[in-house]
Design a protein that fits this description.
Layout (H helix, E strand, L loop, with lengths): L3 H17 L9 H4 L6 E8 L7 E8 L9 E9 L2 E8 L21 E4 L2 E7 L7 E9 L2 E12 L6 E5 L21 E7 L5 E7 L2 H8 L8 E7 L2 E7 L5 E6 L5 H14 L6 E8 L4
């Protein structure tokens, strides 16, 4: 059973990125805004202050791609002649908008702390016990170096807890750091057992083969069919008066009605009578 606290924390976490992605960009000097990589807009800005040797960090992001993912570039600035000048650019340090196991946003502007010669970045997901990635950069004579890169991963936000050091680049430089971000894949599947007429809704499996492995003992490829399989969204199963199953899915995890309507339409189109919902379920990421 999903923890109510975890659901609440996930809901609250979803609000923060929405505000961060809002129409009003953060306040930043003109030279910082002008340094945006092509096709990006300013998402966050933080500086160490007004001192002559001030440092600053800006995070720029793309528009959503075909999979609705926004990608981010970190730019580190140093002050010269009272203007911020880019020192380092890296598009592998800041999490994408769907890079957590919950497909929520792990980047929050308040997680960036800048002092002269030092930058600390925290990124975390919406778990009841959050997974967290921490990075520290220090300015040296030959540029910005990575001094800390760690990741704590909590399975499903409350399960097994692992802590690991992320591999540092051979150069030691922040411009070469790869935080190994990716969008985790989880399949949502409806299996139907032709032998006994039972069905199964499967979640949290990261490959189609993993679905069958998880269903072993209840469903196998000889007796069961995959009625629908997709990633984020809603899946629905409908049965007619004879027990025939019809399933459909939609990518919007907030639209149960659309998934159910498609399954009902499939039932009617096949000549089914007394089509009735068996189950409809929605999932984003791992839940």
């Amino acid at each position: 059973m999903t923890s109510p606290l975890r659901l609440l924390s996930a809901a609250l976490a979803l609000l923060v990125p929405v505000m961060a992605l809002g129409a009003t960009p953060p306040a930043a000097p003109a030279e910082v805004t002008a340094a945006a990589p092509p096709g990006t807009t300013l998402l966050a800005f933080s500086s160490s202050g007004e001192q002559p040797n001030a440092d600053a960090v800006a995070v720029f992001q793309t528009a959503p791609d075909k999979d609705n993912v926004r990608h981010r570039t970190l730019v580190i600035f140093g002050k010269k002649d009272d203007k911020f000048v880019p020192d380092v650019s890296n598009d592998k340090v800041i999490a994408c908008s769907l890079c957590s196991q919950f497909h929520d946003d792990q980047f929050y502007p308040d997680g960036v702390k800048v002092t002269p010669g030092h930058i600390h970045i925290d990124q975390s997901d919406a778990g009841e016990k959050p997974s967290e990635t921490a990075l520290d950069f220090v300015r040296k004579k030959d540029g910005w170096h990575v001094t800390k890169a760690t990741r704590r991963t909590v399975v499903a936000g409350y399960g097994a807890d692992t802590f690991a050091d992320l591999p540092l680049p051979p150069s030691g430089l922040a411009k070469d750091m790869d935080a190994k971000w990716s969008v985790p894949v989880f399949y949502n599947t409806v299996l139907f057992n032709r032998r006994n007429g039972k069905f199964m809704f499967m979640h949290q499996n990261n490959t189609p083969d993993a679905v069958w492995a998880a269903a072993k003992g209840d469903c196998n490829k000889e007796d069961c069919d995959v009625l629908v399989q997709q990633q984020d969204g809603c899946i629905s199963l409908v049965r007619d008066s004879t027990g025939r199953p019809f399933a459909a899915g939609t990518p919007n995890p907030k639209d149960k009605k659309a998934a159910l309507s498609k399954a009902m339409d499939a039932c009617s189109a096949a000549g089914g009578t007394m089509c009735k919902e068996a189950n409809t379920d929605c999932s984003t990421g791992i839940f």
